[in-house]
Structures are given as structure tokens and as C-alpha cells.
Amino acid sequence: MHVVIIHPEQWNGGSDRCTVALIRHFVSKGYKVTWLTTMIDEYWKDHKFEGVDIREVGLKLHPGDWWSQNVALGWYLVFNNIKPDLVVVDHSARWYSNLIGLIEEQLFEKTDVIMVNSHFTASQFSRVMPHIEKSKIRVVYPPCDVDSIVISAEKPMSRRDRPQNDVYIFMSMNRFWPEKRLDIIVEAASLLKKRGYKFLVQLAGSVMPHIPESRIYYELLQKMTRDLYVTDVVHFIPSPSECQKFELYRQCDSALYTPPNEHFGIVPIEALDQRRPVIVCDSGGPAETVIEDVTGSKILKPTGELLAEAMMHHIKKQDWPALDCDETYEKQRARFDRDFSLRGFCAHIDEAVAQLFPDLAAISSRNRRALA
Fold it and tell me: From CA 89, how far away is CA 91, in angstroms rounded?
């Protein structure tokens, strides 16, 4: 079977890891895989994509304009005599105008399966595309352990099993982008410092060189720390490697994830995997994936005051039994493996493929019986 994956702008976020997971899984099944993209970030330069026909189509379009890029890659697919059996299109969460929305709705009516990354996204999709059959929509949470399997062979370590920090360490792992609301972390740090708390905030994440807004926001946050006199308690870690990322998780006591209405949000799941409590906004995907006072805390809206209160709660809370204790963590680990792991993700993909290609599923079943 020939699978074509269309994914513009391969950065190093959650959707990009989904793409990598799909590619590797389809290759492992013995399928022919063609990957159409407009750019591949330097982050992936050392990753091996054996058995994949990569078509990096350079387009002079504004970064983030996935509508135009998907259209361009679709035309490339049609006019380059590529004959796929299955096409996987990674679609942007944005709908730019009523006209484009009407066109997109016509396109979605022709699809067989629509996979979304949270129940929140499913509800948003149905609201914007009310005429699409709900039976086509499947919620499949993205896997967060794509890189940890490759990069980090170390088993996640609970806070009990590592030396205690001199001060409480909060770590934010997010790209520097205005919608991520990292500014409220700086505001919260100012409030905590004024109230005499001993803590450290590590602001880690990618500064996207191709997008001026990312660099401008990064510089704005640095200025904000100077203006609020928190440069001593807020440290910036731009564009950490995957090895550095896992080391930061091991060092920290709690993770921070501040964007509101995020469709999924990979950081809360990485925190669960690494056995760290996390503070999130009570909206979007994180509202589904974080269990209040079990795996983390939720704030009603993104404000520095509410975040500061949640951070104080974490500093005062001695234990998170569901994460710190090996015996009780088993339940959360089972939840992770079922809903958020690469293995669980691939199982959902196989179910969808079997539905679309029942003859292929029957052949695979016979082959498994023959090998047994």
C-alpha cells in the first residue's frame, strides 16, 4: 500500500511528532511512504527516515499559512503522478474566512475518516463544520513518547528518587509565541518573589528563527523580567535539545503550561510521563488530560494572579502520591500507555486503516496466524 502524508512546516511540536510517529509506523508495516512538506526544521536533521520518499517542496509563503501550503502540496500530489492508496492530510486548526470555510467543508465531506486530537477539538470542529457527519470524527490523542523512545533510555524518575532541590523549581516547556501566554509566568514570578517564596522558574522552548514574532516575543519576555526585577528567579533556556528537555523535566518539581484553549497540548502529557505535576489552564485539551489535584492543577483563566496562587499551592504541597509513589503511579502509567503512548496511537491508526481497507486487514490477520 502507498501512503502519502501531507504535513507543511515540519517543526518540533506536538503535531510534528505525530507526523513522525505516523511515518515510522507505516514504514514498520511495510507500506510505501511518501512525505510531502514545505520545510523540515534543523531539529530533525539527524533523524533517520529510512524507507521514506521525502519531497520537500520549497514555497515562498508566510510561515503558518497552512491553507495555502496544503493547497500547493495537493496540486503537487496531483501533477506529479503520485498514485496513493491512502492520503493523510495534517490540517491547520484555523479557519480564515467564511468562503474558505465553505470550501473546506466540501473537502471534508469527501474524506473517509477525520481524526482530531481531543474532545475539545471535536466539539470545535463540529461547531465550525456542522454538516459533517459526526460518525466520521475520531478522537485520537497524539503520542508524547516519540522522542523519549529514541533519545532517552532512562526510566522517568519520581521526585522522591532524586536529590531534593534547594528551591522549588518550575519549568515551562513551550515555544516562544504570544498565544502561549508565557507572560503570565513572569507576572506570577513577580508576585511570588514579593511574597517571599523561594523558587526558580525555567522558561525553556524553541525560538523559531523563520518567524519574526517568535524572536520579538522572546525579547519582550526578557525585557519584562528586567522591568519586574525577576531576572534572578526567571531563567531562559532557548531551543533546548531533546536530551536537555528530559534533563529539565528531571530537575524540576512542577511543570507549567499556560496557553488557553489549546487543542491538545503535549506538555501535560510529557509531565505525566516524567512523573511531574503540571499547572494548566482549565480549557481545551489540557482540561481533559490533567486530573485536578492528582496529576496537576487547573486555573480558570490565564492571569498572573491565578497562576501565582496555583504555584504557591504546589510549593506547599508535600506529595503528589499518584506521581511520586511507584505503586500508585502504576494507575497513571497504565492511563498513559493506553491513551498517550506511541503504541496506543498506532493501534488507533491501525483500526482506522482496517476500516478503510478490510481486505488488507484480512491479509495481515492471515499473516499473523501464519507466523504464530
Answer: 6
